[in-house]
Amino acid sequence: MREHAVIIAGGGPTGMMLAAELALAKVDVAIVERRPDHDLAGSRAGGLHPRALEELDQRGIVDRFVVLGKKRPVVLFPGAILDKSDLPSRYAYSLGIWQTQIERILADWIDELGVKVYRRCEVTGFAVDESGVAVSLKDGRTLRAQYLAGCDGGRSLVRKHAGIDFPGWAPSLSYLIVECDMVEEPKQGVQHGERGVQALGRLEDGRIRGVITEQSLKQGDEPTLDELREALVLAYGSDYGVHNVTWLSRFTDAARQAASYRKGRVLLAGDSAHVHSPTGGQGLNIGLQDAMNLGWKLAQVVKGISPQGLLDTYHAERHPIGAAVIRHTLAMTALSRGDERTNALREILPQVMRMDGPRKWYGAMMGGLDIRYDVGGDHQLAGRRMPDLEISTPNGPQRVFTLLHKAQPVLLAFGKPGAIDIAPYGDRVQRVDARYDGPWELPVIGEVAPPSAVLVRPDGYVAWVGVGDTVGLMEAMTRWFGPPSSA
Ligand SMILES: Cc1cc2nc3c(=O)[nH]c(=O)nc-3n(C[C@H](O)[C@H](O)[C@H](O)COP(=O)(O)OP(=O)(O)OC[C@H]3O[C@@H](n4cnc5c(N)ncnc54)[C@H](O)[C@@H]3O)c2cc1C
Fold this sequence. Notes:
Elements (H helix, E strand, L loop, with lengths): L1 E8 L3 H12 L4 E4 L14 E2 L1 H9 L3 H5 L3 E3 L1 E4 L2 E4 L10 E3 L2 H14 L3 E3 L4 E6 L4 E5 L4 E9 L6 H6 L5 E2 L4 E9 L6 E4 L4 E6 L5 E6 L11 H12 L5 E11 L2 E3 L4 E2 L2 E3 L5 E2 L7 H20 L9 H24 L4 H14 L2 H11 L23 E4 L2 E4 L10 E4 L16 E4 L6 E3 L3 E3 L4 E4 L5 E5 L6 H9 L6
């Protein structure tokens, strides 16, 4: 029986990101993936938002995505296109890039990091005992690990087999999504039918991609060409001579979330933990962020640095984020209806959303830049993402995100060099004596008081803020990075 420290079921975006985080921490991790390669049927997700881009920057790989994508400094709200170019982030835009490209880049990265991928392999079950998990594969093999992460998508076998509830909202609407050619020139752009949105547009290669709300709720992700023609005629009065359909699928506005992201040695991340309508383009983005929240914590537990309880902070921190995204997609779906009352709402609300405060809040929220985890402490920075400041260090000027490339915690000390002693954590936390005289600006909040020191977790969130002293620093180090090595 082959053994690994962690097995990840599912090598989609979330599974690959989690694997990379574990590999960076030198944990023996393997992915079990059903697909023969990372190609997808259809284009699926179409973009990366600011916080996901920042997190990829924290690992030094964001340029691989940026070079292939299209920068869009706007955020869509029903009835309005809002500017977000003034967000205080290096990534004050969303990057238009297809999921296939995203997965290809992530696959190359985990390959470089030496992650073992069992392709064409399917997890069919598992048994948890005191010391680990025995994972059964369809081909009859069994793999063993200390932990099993279910990154196996919305229909997650891992979630079901672990008996984790998946409460939420049953679907009320179904949509067809298609990539095809059309004989006649279709009406392009977004329009609101009585039940919901429909949109047709051209892909880079000149073909048509479309989303059409169906007139009645239908189930099953393999719709027929006749159903597509019927939906086009009802929405546009013509099927535009649709032919050469290379991708036709159906999704709904069902929204569900795992009741718990952890059950003992089993963890859930990405779509296995939360599903919702693609409106707002959030699913892949929050999956990557789940993975970055979980990766370093799981690595520390596996290596015996931190107690298992650290893993509970994964649920505590990420479950509310998933819940908020779900609420948001429900609201956006409601606002996309085309009945008279909703049309009136869609005329009024954009007037509010264009005002500076709501616009900045919405841009930051949709970009994942407004997140605050509960790490204690009064300073506005505590629990928020560390901004990518350009600091002066004994090694010359540096960007903060560069210091996170190895996925290790950093203590940035802005006072007298060498004044903060972190010797008991010298093996785990890099201390960087830094100078920075510019503003500390946070999305939505604005400028905040400069701290004298900040402790930054590997995922780029601030675990502790010093304001002239080191009160609480050792407690924060112990809470997040385990007991001191001399203890
Ligand atoms: C039409 C559409 C548009 C979208 N647009 C956006 C967007 O613009 N932005 C955005 O952020 N998100 C978008 N999404 C959502 C996004 O595609 C998903 O949230 C994302 O793919 C989730 O990644 P994941 O890795 O968690 O799960 P998945 O991508 O579903 O990956 C799960 C993987 O697990 C494998 N697997 C499943 N079961 C097993 C098993 N038993 N054993 C082994 N392997 C298994 C699967 O083969 C798959 O590779 C869109 C989705 C759709 C359908």
